[in-house]
TrEMBL record:
Protein's membrane topology: Multi-pass membrane protein
Main location: membrane
Name by which UniProt lists this protein: TRAP transporter small permease protein
Keywords: Cell inner membrane, Cell membrane, Membrane, Transmembrane, Transmembrane helix, Transport
Length: 189
């Protein structure tokens, strides 16, 4: 189990790095969008390439941030149901659903995204829009996004199993208590 937990920590570190790094792409997308709008309104200049860069950047952020959302426990779940369950029940359901649904889904999408990306890369596929960009970088983001999500799913399975079996304290609770600690410390002067 020690080796698996070390693997989980390594996956978490990669996911955290990529999750923090990809946030800068959002800023780039906003700046490009604003610049494109200003050029279109002020100078009557427009380009499909600028629009496609925005789409690529937003899509890349979405795809690469999915694993980070899972790591941070910010993924979609039905809180109205899970909030009424015990922590152990939530952990067991997370563990089970990651194994039954998330891993097969992310595996299938990674498997299907590889030839989809590779064919586009080999053929030099270009957007059908006038002045459009090459398409393979966007398809690569899909492939990498699902591969990262699959790796993070394995990390979460390892951690949930270790928590359920009592091998480690819950990392989610440690993060939430660390985040809450500074807010609860009030100085009176």
């Amino acid at each position: 189990m020690t080796v698996l937990l070390a693997l989980s920590r390594a996956i978490d570190a990669v996911t955290s790095f990529i999750g923090r790094w990809v946030s800068w792409l959002l800023l780039a997308a906003v700046l490009i969008s604003a610049g494109n709008a200003v050029m279109r309104k002020a100078l009557d200049i427009s380009s499909n390439a600028w629009l496609e860069v925005q789409w690529y950047l937003f899509g890349t952020v979405f795809m690469l941030a999915a694993a980070y959302a899972l790591l941070q426990n910010e993924h979609v779940r039905i809180d109205i149901l899970s909030s009424n369950w015990s922590k152990r029940t939530r952990d067991l359901i997370d563990l089970t659903l990651h194994i039954i649904f998330l891993v097969p889904f992310a595996s299938l999408m990674t498997y299907l995204a590889w030839p989809w990306f590779w064919l586009s890369y080999q053929s030099g596929e270009i957007s059908s829009n006038a002045g459009g960009l090459v398409i393979w970088p966007a398809k690569l983001a899909v492939l990498i996004g699902f591969a990262l999500l699959l790796a993070q799913a394995f990390s979460e399975i390892i951690k949930r199993f270790a928590v359920v079996t009592g091998r480690i304290p819950d990392p989610r609770e440690e993060k939430s208590s660390e985040a809450a600690a500074p807010a609860s410390e009030v100085t009176h002067g």
